[in-house]
Amino acid sequence: MRADARPLASPQHQPARRPYVGRPGAATAAGLLFSGLALFPLLAHMLDDPFLLVIATRVMIFGLAAMSLDLILGYGALVSFGHAAFLGIGAYAVAILAVHGIDDVLIQAVVAIAASSLFALATGAISLRTRGVYFIMITLAFGQMAYFFMVSLSAYGGDDGISLPSRSTLFGTDLLESDLMLFYAVFLCLAVAFLALRAIVASRFGRVLRGTRDNRTRMEAIGFAPFAYQLIAYVIAGALAGLAGVFLANQAEFVAPAFMSWQRSGELIVMVVLGGMGTLVGPIVGAVAFLLLEDWLARFSEHWRLGLGIVLVLLALFSRGGIAGFAARVTGGARR
Questions:
Q1: How many other β-carbons are positioned within 10 Å of the β-carbon of residue 222?
Q2: What pTM was computed for the model?
């Protein structure tokens, strides 16, 4: 042995591995975002504009759906063009159960999550055997299959959709008829989902998922089975999107196959990219930016998607990492 060689440290003397905490300032950004959302009803009351509460509720619903997509897109590099199918399955679970006299939101949520999870498990087990553009195309195909299946169900409105007689009940009460109660119900689920996904990403499971994203071959070489981890992540993402569908049905009091179209899946991807992939906070911010841009640009022209496309091109050219990445660079530069 060389004289200057240092013995390997025993496990108990090795420095503790720092847990994954995401990008710098992520915790602060999350705290500010959720604090602002919690206080938003007060702002709506001060401005005497109840419609702001409706907009904020819709933003959080799509923020939940986009955040679920970020788990597989931002952390797993799985570009799914069929993610809106889970959103539609969750919404149709509410409508179909309501038609048959089951209007309790807890029962509807359980059925929606179960149905979305089973669909994700079945389609994911097939889709994840492909990679790259083939994965994109097969998820698109499954999403369109779900879309046309609902179009063909004339008993539940077919292509015209179906209106809900009323919002879901909670323990026999009509609490969700109040926009304020619906807002806080969505806010609570969004916050719990964020904390749950943050714990998942920071866990060993999340590290394997990110490792598979970065180098699948290396993860296989050290003994991990990427397929199983990706499938579990795919099912979790589908379940959360299904839950978002439950709230979307209640917020709109209407359900249509358009909820699960490939265009809606594309909008969810735009929200994730716009806000910042692999951040969890970014997709929520992206949902805020996308829906506000949609509302603002639609006032000038019915071709508002053209303006949105220009914004996305500029963002891709000058702000890599989306809004979250831009904010991190700005705050980092300010600290220096």
A1: 8
A2: 0.87
